[in-house]
Structures are given as C-alpha cells and as structure tokens.
Write a structure and sequence with these properties.
Helices cover 45% and strands 9% of the residues. The protein is an alpha+beta fold. The protein has two domains: 4-62 and 197-325, Beta-lactamase (3-Layer(aba) Sandwich), CATH 3.40.710; 65-193, Beta-lactamase. It has a five-stranded antiparallel β-sheet. A hairpin with a 4-residue loop joins strand 5 (255-257) and strand 6 (262-267). Helix 2 packs parallel to helix 4, helix 4 (114-122) crosses helix 7 (163-174) and helix 5 packs parallel to helix 8 (182-193). It is globular. 51% of the residues are buried. Mean pLDDT is 95; it is low at 322-327. The chain binds 6-diazenyl-5-OXO-L-norleucine. Residues 63-64, 96-97, 114, 158, 165, 193, 257-259, 284 line the site of 6-diazenyl-5-OXO-L-norleucine.
C-alpha cells in the first residue's frame, strides 16, 4: 500500500531542493568541504514507520545537535539539581558561541549554546576521556540503533581552531562551573560534535524522544523517561539559538540544529524529523531545513499549540493509500 505521506515528502523535497539561500559553514575548515546541494529529509513515526527522500544515507557531523542528547546523559549521571547548578535553562538571545555567563549565578545560560554544552560535557562520567567518549557514543547508539564513529579530520580541525571554546572553558573554570580536566573535556566536546550521523539517525533520535525515550524500531530505551521532557523543553526554548523564539512561533516543534546542516525536530507522541542540508542562514540554521519543518508543521497541524483542523490528517496520510484518499 503506497503511503501518501511518501509522495508528500517527495514533493516537499523537489520544491525546496533548488533553494539557493544560505552559506555552508566554513569557520571550521573541514566543514567547508560539504556540498551545498546535499539534501535529505527523513521522518520516523512513533510506531516505527520510516519515510525518507534525498540524501538520507549521507553522513555528516552532528555538531551542536549532540548538545541536547549529552544534556540528557548528564541528567542521568547526576540528576536535575546538580546539573541545574552548573548550567541554566534560559535562552540567551545571543549567538551560539557568545562568551557570556549569567552574572547572578556564573552559570552558562543553557546547555544548547557552546558554553553550556562544554559544562554538560564536563559532567559526563567515566574514568578517562576514552571511557567518557565510549559512553557518549553508546548513548547515541541507543537513540539511533547503530554504532557511531568520529570524523577525525573534523575533530582535529575543531581542536586546532576552537580557541573561543577554550576561552569559554577557562572562564567557566574561573567560576568553578567546570572541573579542572579542561583539555579532556574540550577534546570530548569536539569529539561529540564530530560524530557522524545521517538524516535517518536524526529522525530516529527525535522519534525516540517523541516516543518517551524508547527507540520506536529497536524498542531500546535511550534515556530515562523522566528526563525526556527536560531535553525537549530546552530544545524548544534554546535549540535553534537566537532564532528559537521565531522557530517556536512559526514551527512550534522543539528542534535542535547543527552547523553541518542537520536539524532534528520532535513532535511529541507523533514523530521525529531529521534533515540534512548544509547551507545555513545568518543564525546558523539550515535554510532548507527551516522551510521543510515549517511546511510539515503547517500541513499536518504539528505546531505544539495548534488546535485548528490541519490541512492533512497525519495518521491517514501515513497509513492510508492513494485510493482511500480519492487520488
Ligand atoms: O563549538 C563549535 O564550534 C561546534 N563544534 C559546534 C557548533 C554548532 O553546531 C553550533 N551551531 N549551530
């Protein structure tokens, strides 16, 4: 039985593949090698159906999308109270790499900007860097259902050029917001950003969050259920950097983006969306990715506050066939 949702995604892909807006990130030299034409859209429903179009097997580095998930692991390692003492939960309204801390508490503002992510990475338990990295990679494997590797040239490129991140880490050390193992933690942060994923992985990761923390295909729990809402709510308020407010207003699906051009978006209880398209807007979010999420949200009524009858009924479009819809 053909699903009309597949045809819908094909049309969406064809509609936006020609979009030329945005620039491929080049502040980390290795990232500049990506093709501006790469484009993949994948949707995974909480009942485990996968819909994909375009370059969904092409791997790229996860970058900042890792921040949401590593925050979840830090919560599992230490609990809310301790994690919240090291990293806040307020949007900054500033760029992802801004060097600011909350003046009242000396905490980084939230785990989705670089400073906050370095603080959460610092919290990941393990006897040494190797063990901590292994725990992070295994955690991602539970979300995606497969094993993950690091792109070593990207990692080295980040490490070589990440002076700003190093500066933030030392500023946070000054306020005892991070431990003294700064070099190990920064390596770990650069490694987690350099982990390879594809659009399918991103859709599976958000579908897992949408499904209460259990991967809808493998049935494996990736994160304790009680922390799922922590991760998703910070994705909503801070996941798209200084565009998070506009995203919440226009799209209304909690999401996290990365500078390699990935976006993962969580429609709780329904589905996860994974997109890969490297050209970014001025705020660091994938230009095609924004358009795609906006349209899927509008057409299927996925905005978290939508109460109007959507243009298309999600369940019918995912499960139905063309005939039943009179095509
Ligand atoms: O810290 C950095 O510069 C990157 N490795 C992570 C950046 C990122 O994805 C932020 N994005 N929009």
């Amino acid at each position: 039985m053909a699903s009309p949702f597949r045809s819908y995604l094909n049309d969406l892909y064809n509609k936006h593949r020609g979009l030329k807006k945005g620039r491929v990130a080049d502040y980390i030299p290795e990232l500049a090698l990506a093709s501006a034409d790469s484009f993949g859209i994948c949707v995974v429903s909480t009942d485990g159906q996968t819909f994909e179009v375009g370059d969904c097997d092409k791997t790229f580095t996860i970058q900042s999308i890792s921040k949401a998930f590593v925050f979840g692991l830090a919560l599992e390692d230490h609990g809310r109270k301790y994690v919240n003492s090291k990293v806040g939960m307020e949007p900054t309204g500033e760029a992802f790499n801004s060097i600011i801390l909350d003046e009242a508490t000396n905490r980084p503002y939230n785990p989705m900007v670089n400073s906050g992510a370095i603080a959460t990475t610092d919290l990941i338990k393990g006897r040494n860097g190797t063990e901590r990295l292994k725990r992070i990679l295994e955690m991602f494997g539970r979300y995606t259902g497969r094993a993950h590797d690091i792109n070593v040239p990207v990692f080295l490129s980040e490490k070589e050029t990440g002076h700003r991140n190093r500066a933030m880490a030392f500023l946070m050390l000054n306020f005892s917001m991070v431990s003294e193992k700064i070099d190990e933690t920064l390596d770990l942060y650069f490694q987690q950003c350099s982990m390879l994923v594809n659009a399918k992985d991103l859709a599976m990761m958000s579908a897992t969050l949408a499904n209460g923390g259990v991967n809808p295909v493998t049935g494996i729990r990736a994160i304790e259920e009680r922390y799922v809402q922590d991760v998703i709510s910070l994705m909503l308020t801070c996941g798209m950097y200084d565009a998070s407010g506009e995203w919440a207003y226009r799209v209304g699906i909690p999401a996290k983006s990365g500078v390699a051009g990935g976006i993962t978006a969580v429609a709780s209880g329904k589905l996860g969306i994974g997109i890969y398209s490297p050209p970014l807007d001025a705020k660091g979010n994938s230009t095609r990715g924004i358009k795609v999420c906006e349209e899927i949200s509008r057409d299927f009524g996925l905005h978290m506050f939508n109460t109007a009858t959507p243009k298309h009924d999600l369940v019918t479009w995912m499960n139905g066939d063309h005939d039943s819809l009179g095509w």
